[in-house]
Amino acid sequence: MDDKNNLWLVKGDSPISLLHFPEKKIYVYASTDEILYKALVDSTLFTAMKKGHYEVVNIEEGTIMQINCDGKISSEQFRFREYSRPGWWEYGYFMDPMEPVSMDQEYLDALRLAATYRGIESEQIDYLLECGFTLEEIEDAIYEV
């Protein structure tokens, strides 16, 4: 929430479940449908749910959504995959910001480290590169394992 009572939601690749109850002028959200519905069963909103008096609000990956204090939704997209590379905060390493490194090399180094944490050897990354896979395709494959 900001100082004007706007709710801001940023959606990456983690789940989020968002419902709107127009008659009650309320939005509720949780990380998953299961958590949200379990919470609502014991609330007064459950009656509205049983009557179908709610809307599911879909948030696509790479969305920044603002819900203003009047309930109006506005959103913008960002290139989530471009910014979703593993960083030092996720894997315990730190790259010297003063050291000149190309973005591709930094990305490759981060992918190698992420792969190692997922049980994939660095040589396998090299093999995929030799076969013509892009860094983005390799990243997708690493996280699908």
Q: Estimate the helix proportion, in percent.
A: 25-40%
Count of domains: 2
Please state the CA-atom Rg, rounded to the nearest Å. 21 Å
- Order of the strands making up the biggest sheet: 1-5-6
Strand content: 15-25%
Number of strands: 6
Task: Quickly count the helices.
Answer: 7
Uncertain segments: 88-95
**Element-by-element helix/strand order:** EEEHHEEEHHHHH
Summed over residues and divided by their number, the pLDDT gives a mean of 82
Alpha carbon gap, first and last residue: 36 Å
Biggest β-sheet description: 3 strands, antiparallel
- Structure class: alpha+beta
User: Can you tell me the overall shape?
Assistant: elongated
Describe this protein's structure.
- The chain is an alpha+beta fold.
- The protein folds into 2 domains: 73 residues, no CATH class; 60 residues, no CATH class.
- The chain is 39% helix and 19% strand.
- The protein has 7 helices and 6 strands, in the order E-E-E-H-H-E-E-E-H-H-H-H-H.
- The strands form 2 sheets. Strands 1-5-6 form a 3-stranded antiparallel sheet, with no helix packed on it. A 3-stranded antiparallel sheet has the order 3-2-4.
- A hairpin with a 4-residue loop joins strand 2 and strand 3.
- Helix 5 runs parallel beside helix 7.
- The longest helix has 15 residues.
- It is elongated and about 60 Å long.
